[in-house]
Design brief:
glycoprotein, mainly beta, 1106 residues, TSP1_spondin_dom, 4-stranded antiparallel β-sheet
Length: 1106
């Protein structure tokens, strides 16, 4: 069918002339039309079959949330269109309608005041995780670490309760903080250990034994580095073989004895030797100059002071011995010579006499920290302390606890309740709408006519709560009110202010209030202004006297009125005049008013035909109110009205229509008001009946608004300011007017003039005097409100403790809070709400340090103990030496030892092993100080020592490998370099910045394209390629550069061309129209429909034509 249809179209291109002479042309055209319709039906059926597979619904992004109210009641929309699978857009009817996605959804409309309710909750960065490398090969050596990435949780929450909310709410005010950032995983650091110490002596003196050596950890493993190796090694050692006779003896080493003090006789001899030396020194000093003697005197005093400071640790160096014996297999002791060994163990050594820590008795308990009664936390704390009398020396046990704390309760009848604190709030500010305006409407913020939903704020502050304050204030207020009844009203306002000043509590530190925070903002409503609306003017009333109670001459007025249908927000003063008057002659105060007509009564008692209707009247006054009929006795009574009672065969006419509006509002020389009414023929007359009137009789015209165009009315000006009127005594300070308390009653005046319409002001006699509006009225004088502020808070505390480092003089401040703003001429607020002054200079914090003095002479084991050992004749060998330790401030001043025990760190060693060199030992000077560095990275500094005495001539002492005379050390390096880490971030637009790139049209409300910035992390390294803080490289940790986010552009086609001519000159043909491509889509814009590849155009569906 489709082929046939197509052939019919192609073969039918021959033109046939139209005319009555060719009878075959219509039949052939009809055949072609049938084939065309059948072809179109087949194509439509096949297209419907393929719709589900080739056409799909496409959706655009959701637009901005719109709505009248803030909160969850908003609506957001998106574009939904039908597209071919190849990307081009088509008609929506080609897609399945049941599968059409929604184009709108409910949303949360964000307003500016939501910023106080929602905020981003930013979590902490998690651990740095490695990023998978693009290449599988790992670098052979780690130089600066491994690139990594770390993430954190970002959630939009409600500030009040922490409940999560949609991210779009927080994104309205602040872009979502980044959730990922580049980081650097430092290089793996393997465990570093020191070299092994020398092997210990063999455990056996003969035969096979064991010996071990140890090493310690220099740097532990980090960042996944390899673990530490074994720190101890053992090996088998072989001594000389044990002979048969040697195996009979074994060497036994006993334990060390308790450390003993040398005998007193030996001490006395040592003191005598010391005194003799002092005498010799005194003899030498006697020959010195006075300046030298003064220096020696100061040194003696200093040494004496040091001895006093050492009362906490009286160091005594003693000695201890042990037994070394040679034992036969049978258990008998033999001479040491039988136990052959290269080196016998030592049998004596110097030691420190052990002394345990001694403390004083406990002090008395301090008073309880809780001096008042409180049910929530009834218990306080109290402490007691003790001091150290003797520090431990040579003991493993530490001093006991020096301070003890326990809970306590303050008891007794006189215990006062604790001070409680609570929140207070100031008055609500005036309702304001501009804080809630969106960013786009901020330009309206300066307008004063804003109305609708607004917001009020107030300030909160913390005060000391006092339950007895309220009853005291009530008593005081009653007393003042009783005293003020006889006084004038003017004294009422200060009384109100005094009462408030008493109730205003002094603000305290906000941290003292622990209760729930009162709200500081609330929604409010400002009524929008409404214009005054009035009804239409009534008809002009009758001519009446200006004052019917006192008629004067023949002057009168006709009045017309209108009423207020909608009260304005500003009161009736904003409405136009409601009464107009025109002068008239022959006035009357009362007149008859026709309110109806009785039935039509035919004349001569006939059943139908001409007749009369009696009017139904009432007597009314000039205001249109019904009054006694006797008052209208002088008025002309209305006469009966001519009417027509229809007969059965008469012409039937409709009722008269209502009178049309008057053509003029008034009548003058050139204008006359006319109005018209009409009726129509409902049924024509029968035989013998009254015939229908001609067409002119179906309309009636009458004069209207015959009054003069000279119209007058009273015009009122705005009411002036309310001024107190001392003559008014009907109201006092306790009166109320319209439900509002008033302090006094004043008077208001306004200007009232007589105005002629379209002319201007005229004399007052032209307007009715009895209708003149009032020019003076009483008014409400609101109470004067003075500004009320709280008393000044207490001065903030100055630093009570000492200040470390450079002393910066801090300031202390105090403040007060305005709790009521002035109004109605009340006392203004003070200018000073905040005061500050400088604190007195705080004492400088002393940093304490241990001062170590020179080591005393090396003290050996007493001679009488070592006299039997080899080489005892020479005073040399190992010993112990002690030194004095004192506590000093940083400036060098003397301090108590307890300060250093708290703040100066661990106690330096009081003793150390020493060696008095023997004749065969190498002797050196002390190491010099290190030389200074020149500041360059890679520099070296050195220190030296030299041989002294006979050691200069000994060859073993000249061996620099065993006894180095120079030591080198690298200078510290301060050079750092910054290097980028990781990839660049995405291009990020600046906050709140919307730009249009290349003048393209912005689609939607939010533009997410234009110029932005991208960032890359920076790492800082030292000269050894070690990672350090980025601040050392004077870097923020990242670098930035400008970037462009291209804006999407949709496919752009031309407008439709005109329809082409019909393809057939007779019969059924087609005509086409087309569009052509103007601009291709790019950067993700909506694609073009399917185009002709050659002409780059699109052809509309074929349109049949005849």
């Amino acid at each position: 069918m489709r082929a046939a249809g197509g052939m019919g179209l192609s073969e039918g291109s021959t033109a046939f002339p139209r005319g009555p002479g060719l009878s075959t042309s219509p039949a052939r055209c009809v055949g072609v039309l049938v084939v065309l319709l059948l072809g179109n039906w087949g194509a439509r059926a096949q297209s419907e079959f393929q719709t589900s597979s080739v056409y799909l619904w496409k959706t655009g992004p959701w637009g901005r949330c719109m709505g009248d109210e803030c909160g969850p009641g908003g609506i957001q929309t998106r574009a939904v269109w039908c597209a071919h699978v190849e990307g081009w857009t088509t008609l929506p009817t080609n897609c399945k309608q049941p599968e059409r996605p929604d184009n709108q959804q409910s949303c949360f409309r964000v307003c500016d005041w939501h910023k106080e309710l929602y905020d981003w909750q930013i979590g902490t960065w998690d651990h740095c995780r490695p990023v998978l490398s693009r290449s599988h090969e790992k670098p052979q050596e780690c130089l600066r670490g491994e690139d990594g990435i770390q993430t954190r949780d970002i959630t939009c929450i409600q500030k009040s309760n922490g409940v999560p909310a949609e991210d779009v709410i927080c994104e309205y005010f602040e872009p979502k903080p980044r959730q990922e950032q580049a980081c650097l995983i430092p290089c793996r650091q393997d465990c570093i250990v020191a070299e092994f110490a020398p092997w210990t002596e063999c455990s056996k003196t003969c035969g096979s034994g064991l010996q071990h050596r140890t090493r310690h950890v220099v740097a532990p493993p980090q960042f996944g580095g390899s673990a530490c190796p074994n720190l101890t090694e053992f090996q088998v050692c072989q001594s000389s073989p044990c002979a048969a006779e040697e195996s009979l003896y074994s060497l036994n080493v006993g334990p060390w004895s308790v450390c003993s003090v040398p005998h007193s006789r030996q001490i006395r001899q040592a003191r005598k030797r010391g005194k003799s030396k002092d005498k010799e020194k005194d003899r030498e000093k006697a020959v010195r100059d006075p300046e030298a003697r003064e220096l020696i005197k100061k040194k003696r005093n200093r040494n004496r002071q040091n001895r006093q400071d050492n009362k906490y640790w009286d160091i005594q160096i003693g000695y201890q011995t042990r037994q070394v014996t040679c034992t036969h297999r049978n258990g008998k002791t033999a001479a040491l010579s039988f136990c052959k060994q290269d080196k016998l163990p030592i049998t004596f050594q110097s030691c420190v006499i052990t002394k345990e820590c001694q403390v004083s008795e406990w002090s008395e308990w301090t008073p309880c920290s809780k001096t008042c009664f409180d049910m929530t936390t009834p218990k306080g704390n109290r402490t007691r302390s003790r001091t150290i009398k003797q520090l431990p020396i040579g003991s493993e046990s530490e001093c006991p606890q020096l301070e003890e704390t326990e809970q306590c309760i303050t008891q007794g009848d006189g215990v006062a309740p604790c001070i409680t604190y609570g929140w207070r709030t100031t008055e609500w500010t005036e309702c304001r709408v501009d804080p809630l305006l969106s960013q786009q409407d901020k330009r309206r913020g300066n307008q004063t006519a804003l109305c609708g939903g607004g917001i009020q704020t107030r300030e909160m502050y913390c005060v000391q709560a006092n339950e007895n304050l309220l009853s005291y204030l009530n008593t005081l207020k009653e007393k003042e009110e009783s005293q003020s009844q006889s006084k004038s009203k003017a004294s009422a306002a200060p009384l109100l202010s005094i009462t408030f000043e008493i109730t205003a509590s002094r603000p305290v530190d906000r941290r003292l209030c622990t209760g729930p925070l009162p709200s500081t903002s609330q929604l409010c409503h400002i009524p929008c202004p409404t214009e005054c609306e009035t009804s239409a003017w009534s008809a002009w009333g009758p001519c009446t006297y200006e004052n019917c109670d006192d008629p004067q001459a023949k002057k009168g007025f006709k009045l017309r009125k209108r009423r207020i249908t909608n009260e304005p927000t500003g009161g009736t003063g904003n409405c136009p005049h409601l009464l107009e008057a025109i002068p008239c002659e022959e006035p009357s105060c009362y007149d008859w008013r026709i309110v109806g007509l009785e039935e039509c009564v035919p004349d001569n008692e006939k059943p139908c035909g001409p007749g009369t209707q009696v009017p139904i009247v009432i007597c009314v006054n000039s205001d249109g109110e019904e009054v006694d009929r006797q008052l209208c006795r002088d008025a002309i009574y209305p006469i009966p009205v001519v009417c027509e009672a229809p007969c059965p065969k008469d012409c039937v006419l409709s009722m008269w229509s209502a009178w049309s509006s008057c053509s003029h509002t008034c009548s003058g020389k050139t204008t006359e008001g006319k109005q018209m009414r009409a009726r129509s023929i409902l049924a024509y007359a029968g035989e013998g009946g009254v015939q229908c009137p001609n067409s002119s009789a179906l309309q009636e015209t009458r004069s209207c608004n015959e009054h003069s165009c000279t119209v007058y009315h009273w015009q009122t000006g705005p009411w002036g300011q309310c001024i107190e009127d001392a003559s008014v005594s009907a109201f006092n300070s306790s009166a109320s007017w319209n439900g509002e308390a008033t302090c006094s009653v004043g008077m208001q005046t306004r200007k009232v003039i007589c105005v002629r319409v379209n002319v201007g002001q005229v004399g007052p006699k032209k307007c009715p005097e009895n209708l003149r509006p009032e020019t003076v009225r009483p008014c409400l004088l609101p109470c004067r409100k003075d500004c009320i502020v709280t008393p000044f808070s207490d001065w903030t505390l100055c630093p009570s403790s000492c200040q470390e480092g450079d002393v910066i003089v801090k300031k202390q401040s105090r403040h007060r809070v305005i709790i009521q703003l002035p109004a109605n001429g009340g006392r203004e607020c003070p200018d000073t709400l905040f005061e500050e002054k400088e604190c007195e200079a705080s004492p400088i914090c002393y940093n304490y340090r241990w001062k170590t003095h020179k080591w005393r002479r090396c003290q050996l084991v007493p001679w009488y103990v070592r006299q039997d050992s080899p080489g005892a004749h020479e005073t040399c060998g190992p010993g112990l030496q002690a030194r004095a330790i004192t506590c000093r401030r940083q400036d060098g001043g003397q301090a108590d030892i307890s300060e250093c025990l708290k703040y100066a760190g661990p106690l330096p060693s009081l003793t150390q092993t020493c060696q008095i060199p023997c004749q065969d030992d190498c002797q050196f000077t002390n190491w010099s100080k290190f030389s200074s560095c020149n500041g360059d990275c890679g520099g070296v500094r050195t220190r030296k020592r030299t041989l002294i005495g006979k050691s200069k001539k000994k060859d073993k002492c000249k061996n620099s490998q065993l006894y180095p005379l120079i030591e080198n050390q690298f200078c510290p390096c301060d050079k750092y370099s910054a290097q980028p880490v990781g990839n660049w971030s995405d291009c990020i637009l600046p906050e709140g910045k919307v730009e249009v790139l290349l003048g393209m049209k912005v689609q939607g409300d939010i533009k997410e394209c234009g110029q932005g910035y991208r960032y890359q992390a920076m790492a800082c390294y030292d000269q050894n390629s070690r990672l350090v803080e980025t601040s050392r490289c004077n870097s923020h940790g990242y670098i930035e550069e400008a970037c462009i986010i291209p804006c999407p552009s949709d496919c752009k086609l031309s407008e439709w061309s005109n329809w082409s001519r019909c393809s057939k000159s007779c019969g059924s043909g087609v005509k086409v129209r087309s569009k052509w491509l103007r601009e291709k889509p790019y950067n993700g814009g909506r694609p073009c429909p399917k185009l002709d590849h050659v002409n780059q155009d699109i052809i509309d569906s074929l349109f049949p034509c005849l």
